[in-house]
Amino acid sequence: MIFNKIIDSLANIIEEKLSENILIKIQEKLLESGIFIMASELIAKIMLIILVLSLLFSFLSIVFSFDLLIAIIFAIAIPPGVLIGHITLQIEKRRENIEKSAPDFLRQLASMLRVGLSFESSMDDLSKYGSGPLYDEIRRAVIEIRMGRDFDETILSMSNRLNSNNLDKTFKIILEGRKSGGGLADIIDDVAEDLRVILSLKRERKASVMMAILFLVISAAIAAPFALGMIGIYSSFMVSLGKGSELIETAIIAAGSYIIIHSVLAGLIIGLIMYGDFKKGIKFSIPLTIVAYSVFYVISSFGSGLLNF
Questions:
Q1: Stretch 181-203: mean pLDDT, rounded?
Q2: Which domain covers residue 121, as residue numbers?
């Protein structure tokens, strides 16, 4: 009960202090990922988790004698990093489910148009019996049309919410075909077949690049941090021999900086390979950087103890 009261109080403060536009954008991302919680409440929980982790990591830094600043940075970075990674994975999963069910939906829509139903009536009937995120959006679109919203505007808004370039182009083609007054059922059938082929090629492409992505992940998160972490072990060894120097300390800082840069670039390259867009790699860069630097720090700080240097 006390915990819930603290969360509610923090959430109210966040709603007062944080911009409404920011809260709306966060809420939209949560809805896209299937996380049904108020944005302010989620931020409040993240803040409490950060506070608890900060206290825990500070205690561990004293017990195990490692850098307090690094402990605080980890405590602040881990909860948002994990949340962003989870939201990203859920959004990707939702998009894949929507795209997978789209060709069948379009074929059913074309069949209903051929028997004489209108476009709006066909969507209404299909929305009653289908299940999944695509049909949820169809039901929402049908409700908006009944409430008086413009049909084209509703469909375009739905295609934006689906967060899929392929479906966005598909619905725009359908709307153009509807305006031209041609054989809409045939157009939808052709579009459905084209979409099926595109999605098949997309799956093949994804499967063909998985080895390259796996190599980048292992290199960025394990191999490079472990190898460069050996610099810390070498430094401890030299200090134990009374031969420590500023050069060795500088090398450790340089190695840590390299790990961060390498992880960020690896994430951007993964985004380019998978989606053809560097910007989409940012979501991979954040967790890779956290994991990679954690491995580097553990090896460089505690490796010498394990080897009894």
A1: 81
A2: 98-203
Final residue of a domain: which of 169, 203, 237? Answer: 203
Q: What is the pTM of this model?
A: 0.67
Contact 199/269 with Cβ under 8 angstroms? no
What is the sign, positive or negative, of the torsion defined by CA atoms of 102, 103, 108, 112? positive
Cβ neighbours of residue 293 closer than 8 Å, sequence gap 6 or more: 225, 256, 259, 260, 263
For 59-81, what is each residue's pLDDT tens digit?
Answer: 877 877 767 787 788 788 888 87
Distance CA 200, CA 147 (A): 37
Question: Does residue 24 lie in a domain region?
Answer: no
- CATH number (domain holding residue 197): 1.20.81
Q: What is the rounded CA–CA span in Å between residue 95 and residue 266?
A: 24
Closest CA relative to residue 167, chosen from 118, 90, 106, 124: 106
The count of domains in the chain is 2
**CA-to-CA distance for 32 and 237, rounded, in angstroms?**
51
DSSP state of 148: T
Polymer length in residues for the chain: 309
Q: Is residue 238 part of a domain?
A: yes
Segment 286-294 shows an average pLDDT of 84
